Amino acid sequence: MGPGSGLTSSVGGGLSHHSVGGGGCAKYGPCTNQLVSLEVVLPTGEIIETGSQANKYSKLPFNRFGNGPDLAGFFCGDNGIFGVKTKVSLQVFPKPEFAEYKTFLMPCKPAETAAQIMTEIRQNGIDVYDTMYFMDLIVSIGIQYGMFPMWEHLKRKRVVIFYTVEANSETELKAKVTQLDKIILGKKAEEFGPEISDGNIAKWHYEEQGHWLIAHNLWGLIPGFDPVDAECHVPINAYPKIMKDLDQWDIEHSEDMQKILEITGMRPITGTGPIILTEGSNIELTCGFTSFPSYYNGEKHENIKEINLKLWKSLLERLIKHGAMFYMFGDILSRHMVNIQGYQKGYYELMKKIKDTIDPKHILSRGKYNFWGNGRK
Ligand SMILES: Cc1cc2nc3c(=O)[nH]c(=O)nc-3n(C[C@H](O)[C@H](O)[C@H](O)COP(=O)(O)OP(=O)(O)OC[C@H]3O[C@@H](n4cnc5c(N)ncnc54)[C@H](O)[C@@H]3O)c2cc1C
C-alpha cells in the first residue's frame, strides 16, 4: 500500500505505520492485514519469530495466528518503538484478469451522498478495489495547477467519486458493475465517459499506476507550499461532519492565517485530501492545511514555522476529539496525543509498561509517545 510519502518505501516502515491508503486498500485493507509472520530484533538484541514460526520445527511461515497470542500484531503499527523488523512474510495475490473503473460527478450535498454510497457498497458486500471521493477544493486546485491532466474535462464540473473493481470472469465483473452503478446512479450522480481524457480518473488510477502516484501530486500540489496535515481513520458516516468542522476550525483561526498571508501574499488553505474507503466501514481522511515553509522568498520567517506548528497541533486536537484514529505517529503527533490526554489511561500505561520491559534503555525511537527513559517525562 502507498507509499504517498515518496517514490520508495520500505516494507518494515509500511508495517510499522499500518500503511493503508493507495492501491486496493478498500479490498485488501492496510498492509498489516497481509502479514503472516515476522522476524524482529528486540532492543535487547534478542531475535524472535512470530505465528507459525514460533514453533522451532516449522520450516516455512504459513499462519500468523496461533502458538499463543498474536505477537506479530504487537509490532504492527508500533511506529518502530518495540523492535526492528528484519524479515517478513506477506500474502500476495495475483492480479485478476478483469477490471472496471468509473468516475462520476456528484450531485448536491456531495460529502453526505458519497458517504451513503460507500456505506451501501459495504452493506451489499461488494469488494471494490478502491473507492475515492474528491472534494471540490482538490478538484479546482488540481485543475488550476495542472495536477491531473485528465481533469481538464472537469473545468466546469467539480466534486467526483470513483470506483475501481476487479473480477476473475466477465460475468462476475458485470454483476459487480451493475450493483455499483445502481447504487451510484440511484443517487443522481452523473457518469463520465470511459476514457482518461473524459475525466475518468479511475482508469488512470488503476491502469496507469495512478494508485501509486495520486498522493505525490497532491503533496506537491503547489511549489513552495507545505502540507501540514495528518492521516487518520474515521467511520464512513462521520466524515461529512468532520469536513464541516474543519471549515469552522479554519474560520476560528483566521487571525493566525492572516499573519502568514501578510508575509507570503497567500492565505493557507484548510481541507481534506481524497476520502478513501478502507477496510470495513472506515475511511481514510487526510486533513490539515497547506501553508508555507518558514524559508520563504530567500528569507527565514521563524514566525511561519511557529504558526504552522501551533495551528497543526490545534487541528490535530480537534480531530482527536472527533474520535479520529491516527496510525502514522511521528514524534510530534505521538507526543501531542499523550499531552492532550487523548489516550485511555489504561491503554497508555500498558503501552508504557511494555516499552519499559522490552526496551529498558529506551534506545528505539526515543521520545515517541513521550517514552524518554531515564525518568524523563
Ligand atoms: C506526506 C505523506 C503521505 C503519505 N501518504 C500515504 C499514502 O497515500 N498511502 C500510504 O499507505 N501511506 C502513506 N504515507 C505513510 C507511508 O505509508 C509511510 O510513510 C511509508 O510507507 C513508510 O515507509 P518508509 O520506508 O518511508 O518508513 P519510514 O517513514 O522510514 O518509517 C516509518 C516508521 O516505521 C519505523 N520503521 C521503519 N523501518 C522499520 C523496521 N524495519 N522495523 C521497525 N520499525 C521501522 C520508523 O521508525 C518509523 O516510525 C504517507 C506519509 C507521508 C509522510
Question: Which compounds are bound in this model?
Answer: flavin-adenine dinucleotide
Strand count, sense and closure of the main sheet?
9 strands, antiparallel
- With helices defined by DSSP (H or I, 4 residues minimum), what is the helix count? 13
The CATH level-2 architecture of the largest domain is identified as: 2-Layer Sandwich
Number of E-state strands: 14
Radius of gyration: 22 Å
Structural class: alpha+beta
Characterize the overall form.
Answer: globular
Structure description:
The structure is a single chain. With 377 residues, the chain is α+β, with helices and mostly antiparallel strands. The chain folds into 4 domains: 11-90, Uridine Diphospho-n-acetylenolpyruvylglucosamine Reductase, domain 3 (2-Layer Sandwich); 98-218, Alpha-Beta Plaits (2-Layer Sandwich); 222-326, 2-Layer Sandwich (GMP Synthetase, Chain A, domain 3), CATH 3.30.300; 342-370, no CATH class. The chain is 37% helix and 19% strand. The strands form 3 sheets. Strands 4, 5, 6, 7, 8, 9, 10, 11 and 14 form a 9-stranded antiparallel sheet that branches. A 3-stranded antiparallel sheet has the order 2-1-3. Strands 12-13 form a two-stranded antiparallel ribbon. It is globular. The model has no long low-confidence stretch (mean pLDDT 91). It binds flavin-adenine dinucleotide. Flavin-adenine dinucleotide is lined by residues 1-5, 9-10, 12-14, 16-17, 19-22, 79-80, 84-85, 215, 219, 328, 365.
